[in-house]
Amino acid sequence: MKKTLVFMLILISAISLSANAPKENENVLTVYAYDSFAGDWGPGASLIPRFEEETGIKVNLVSAGDGREMINRVKMEGDRTDADVILGVTDDTAYEAYELLEPYESPMLENIPDELEFDPEHRLIPFDYGAFAFVFDSESEIRRPESLEDLASEEYRNKVILIDPRTSTVGLGLLLWSYTIFGDGDEFVAWWEAMKDNALTVADGWSSAYGLFTEGEAPIVLSYTTSPVYHVMNENTTRYEALVFPEGHEATIEGIGIIKGTDMREEAEAFIDFILSEGQTEIAVANSMYPASSAAELPDAFRYAPKPDKLFPSGQVSPEKTEELIQLWLDTMTR
Questions:
Q1: Which CATH class is domain 130-250+306-334?
Q2: Average pLDDT of the chain, as a whole number
Q3: Closest CA to 98 of 133, 77, 64, 125
Q4: Exposed site from 58, 108, 118, 186, fewest CB < 10 Å?
Q5: Is 176 helix (H, G, I), strand (E, B) or coil?
Q6: Nearest to 221 by CA among 240, 237, 234, 236
Q7: In the chain, where do the E strands start and end?
Q8: Per-residue model confidence as pLDDT tens digits over 6-59
Q9: pTM of the entire structure?
Q10: Residue 292's Cα: distance from chain center in Å?
Q11: pLDDT higher than 70, residue 283
């Protein structure tokens, strides 16, 4: 009987200690980020240790897919989510994330141009941005197209690599860009019918499309104005050029935000401020994107990433309109 009593007391004591023990991730800031940020070669590999050293805040960096996958994961996890911060939601999918986030008036907002702030409540704060563009192989023998309309000319038949807007944010970027320029009437349909003939292929994603381009399969590919930076910095070549068109370009803006209800609010704010200050140059170089902060200093290679005079934020098109455009695109490309 005594042995049983002693065992029960030990068991009760153990349960009590277990209940009061800190959780594995308590006092650790959990950041959900897109895969390339969190990967071994992404900016997170060096930025996270630097942030931890400077602030004493431990970070659990979670590779959570692309922006839409991150949003869906947090929604699925609900109140059980470990996430305190989400990093890498683009302006075209931001509407799906707003209900999950708390506003934050970061002092670093003073360095971010107004035109990049797609969320007036600052639930998502821009940390980098890019402009969709066609990249041209200057060693090819074809003429550089000078506008979207020019690109639809017969001389570019089978010379362009496009990307599917149903499976890629880059492909969606071109769809919204063409809508901004042509509307969704006959001119829009006519342009896409011409591009159907000019497309060597329609790739599922940016990586496969750009790989085909650098392998020499076609001299023009859908990408970003910043894509040449990688080649200048890593291959010491200016062979690949971003084409900037006078009618303007569709922008893509990536944001960072704080998950609603987090008990790591102060730490989350410190992390966001760090990303918007010390992290800006490294993220821009690693992502081949422009930094959101006007105070960031960039290497000379960014001289080969021309900024368009006109940028159209993709977040201005409603979700319903986007779905309508995707269906119109599909009807045009398959008939």
A1: alpha beta
A2: 89
A3: 125
A4: 186
A5: helix
A6: 240
A7: 28-33, 58-63, 85-90, 101-102, 125-137, 160-163, 199-203, 220-224, 240-243, 249-259, 290-291, 311-313
A8: 334 343 443 333 333 334 446 899 999 988 888 888 899 999 999 999 999 999
A9: 0.78
A10: 13
A11: yes
Cross-strand bridge partners of residue 125:
256
Q: Which of 158, 162, 163, 119 is nearest to 140 (CA)?
A: 158
Q: How does residue 112 score in pLDDT terms, banded at 50, 70 and 90?
A: very high
Phi first, then psi, for residue 191 (nearest 5°) are -65, -45
- Nearest 5°: phi and psi at 134? -95, 135
How many residues does the structure list for the chain? 335
Q: Collect all residues with Cβ–Cβ distance below 8 Å to 329 and sequence separation of at least 6.
A: 165, 175, 192
Task: Give the helix/strand (H/E) hosting 209.
Answer: helix 206-214
The values of phi and psi at residue 33, to 5°, are -135, 160
Q: What local confidence, expressed as pLDDT, does residue 9 receive?
A: 39
Average pLDDT over residues 165-181: 90
186-198 helix and 169-182 helix, angle to the nearest 10 degrees: 130
Domain spanning 26-129+252-304: CATH superfamily: Periplasmic binding protein-like II (3.40.190.10)
**Cα 164 to Cα 150: distance, rounded to the nearest angstrom:** 21
Domain ranges of the chain: 26-129+252-304, 130-250+306-334
Query: Fold identical between 26-129+252-304 and 130-250+306-334?
Result: yes
* pLDDT band at residue 291 under the 50/70/90 scheme: very high
Q: What angle do CA 2, 7, 8 make, to 5 degrees?
A: 100
Centre a 10 Å sphere on the Cβ of residue 151 and count the other Cβ atoms it contains. Answer: 21
Distance CA 327, CA 313 (A): 21
Q: What is the DSSP track for 30-74?
A: EEEE-HHHHSTTSTHHHHHHHHHHHH--EEEEEE--SHHHHHHHH
Whether the Cβ atoms of residue 132 and residue 296 lie closer than 8 Å to each other? no
SS3 annotation, 184-195? CCHHHHHHHHHH
pLDDT of residue 194 exceeding 90, the answer is yes
